[in-house]
Amino acid sequence: xxxxxxxxxxxxxxxxxxxxxxxxxxxxxxxxxxxxxxxxxxxxxxxxxxxxxxxxxxxxxxxxxxxxxxxxxxxxxxxxxxxxxxxxxxxxxxxxxxxxxxxxxxxxxxxxxxxxxxxxxxxxxxxxxxxxxxxxxxxxxxxxxxxxxxxxxxxxxxxxxxxxxxxxxxxxxxxxxxxxxxxxxxxxxxxxxxxxxxxxxxxxxxxxxxxxxxxxxxxxxxxxxxxxxxxxxxxxxxxxxxxxxxxxxxxxxxxxxxxxxxxxxxxxxxxxxxxxxxxxxxxxxxxxxxxxxxxxxxxxxxxxxxxxxxxxxxxxxxxxxxxxxxxxxxxxxxxxxxxxxxxxxxxxxxxxxxxxxxxxxxxxxxxxxxxxxxxxxxxxxxxxxxxxxxxxxxxxxxxxxxxxxxxxxxxxxxxxxxxxxxxxxxxxxxxxxxxxxxxxxxxxxxxxxxxxxxxx
Length: 456
Description:
Layout: H1 4-14, E1 29-32, H2 38-48, H3 55-59, H4 67-73, E2 78-80, H5 85-104, E3 116-120, H6 122-126, H7 128-140, E4 145-149, H8 168-174, H9 212-221, H10 233-249, H11 257-264, H12 284-295, E5 299-303, H13 307-310, E6 319-320, E7 329-330, H14 336-349, E8 354-360, H15 368-376, E9 382-386, E10 402-404, H16 412-416, E11 421-423, H17 434-440, H18 445-455
Parallel strand pairs: 1-2, 1-3, 3-4, 5-8, 6-7, 8-9, 10-11
Helix pairs in contact: 1-2, 5-7, 5-14, 7-14, 14-15
Domain Transketolase N-terminal: 1-181, 186-252
InterPro entries: THDP-binding, Transketo_C/PFOR_II, Transketolase-like_Pyr-bd, Transketolase_fam, Transketolase_N
Catalytic activity: D-sedoheptulose 7-phosphate + D-glyceraldehyde 3-phosphate = aldehydo-D-ribose 5-phosphate + D-xylulose 5-phosphate
C-alpha cells in the first residue's frame, strides 16, 4: 500500500512496455524485491492490459495455484525476487543491456535502449549480496539502472531500529551511486500500510493481511466507495492507453542475424557438435567454453578471480570492463553471493544470452539461494564447479536406504544407491495450501510406507 504511488507512476507514466507483447525485446524491466507485496504488481499488470493477469486471478490469488500467471510472465519482464537478490538481478539486467548496446547499437540506430527499475527495502540492504552487487555495478560503470529504496523503516518484527540503523544513502554514495531522496515515492520515504487507520506505519501490516474489519476501515478512510476488485470506468479509460502506446513503441527492425539469435532463443544448427565429452575432466572447463563461444553468439561468463586455476578464460575475447562492455570475459571478483543472481538475470534479459560461472565446488554453498532460483525460473545458466573432493556417507553394507524430503531428489541417487529410493519433488513453480501440495506431489504417508515396504 505504501509503494502504490511508486508503482502507479512507474507503470503509468515512466516505463515503456507493450501489454499485448510482453516479450518485446526493448521493453523496460521491473524487479520487485518485496514478494509479499506482489498483489500490487499483479494489479498494475491487470490495469495496464496484460492478458496473463485477469480479474479472476486477482480474486483467487491467495487460494489458487498461480502457475498460469507465472508461466505467462516467465520472470522475463516482471520479476519478484528474494531479499537481496532484487538489486543483484537489476545489476545483471543492466550488465546484459550494456553488453548488447556495445555490440549492436549504431550511431544512427539504437536498437538496444531500455531501463531497469527496482523497488527494494530494508531487508534487501541487510543482505550482504546487495553490497556485492552494487559494488560490481559501479566497477562496470552500469547505467540505465534505477532503484527505489522503500524507506518505511518497518521490518517484520518491529521497526528497523532494533536491527538496522545504517545510513543507506551514504552507503550508496560510497559505492559511487547517484542518490536522490524523495518524501513520497535512490530513497523514498513511505508509510507501510498507507491508508489503514489502525495499522499504518506498524510492523503488524508488514507481512500479514489487514483483516476484514480493517479493510472496511481503510476503504472508508480513503473514501473508496467501490466494491472489491471493481475498477471504475474512468480508471479503465486512463490505463487502457498503454495498449495502443505500447504497440507504437515497437520500432525494432529485424536486420541482425546474430542479435535475432540472442533475443529469440534459437540455437545455431549443429552447435552441440562442438562439445568435447571424451577428455580428461580437468581440461573440459577450458575446452568446452572456448568451443561454445565460437558458435553461440550469446555465450559469455567468468569466475570469481579463479580463471587461471579452473581454466575458464575465453581466449578469443578480452575482459568486460567499464569501457569494454562488448567483451565476453566477465571478471566477477570474489562475490559468489551475487554472481549466481547476475547470471540468472542475464538469461532473463534475453533468452539466448547464456552465461557461465566457474568456481571451486566448496564455494557454491555461498550461492545456494541463487542456484535454487536458477532451477525455479529455469534459467539457462551453466555452473562449472571444479576442485571437488570425494561427499563417503553410508557403509556399503546398508543397502536399504530411503530419502524423504520436500525438495528435489537431485543428488540423492548417489546416496541411496541403486537399491534405495528417493521421494521428493522434481519440479518448481506451484503455490497452494500445504495439504494440497503434498497430495499433488505424492508426499503422503501412504506413499512413504509403500516405498519403505518395498525396500524391506
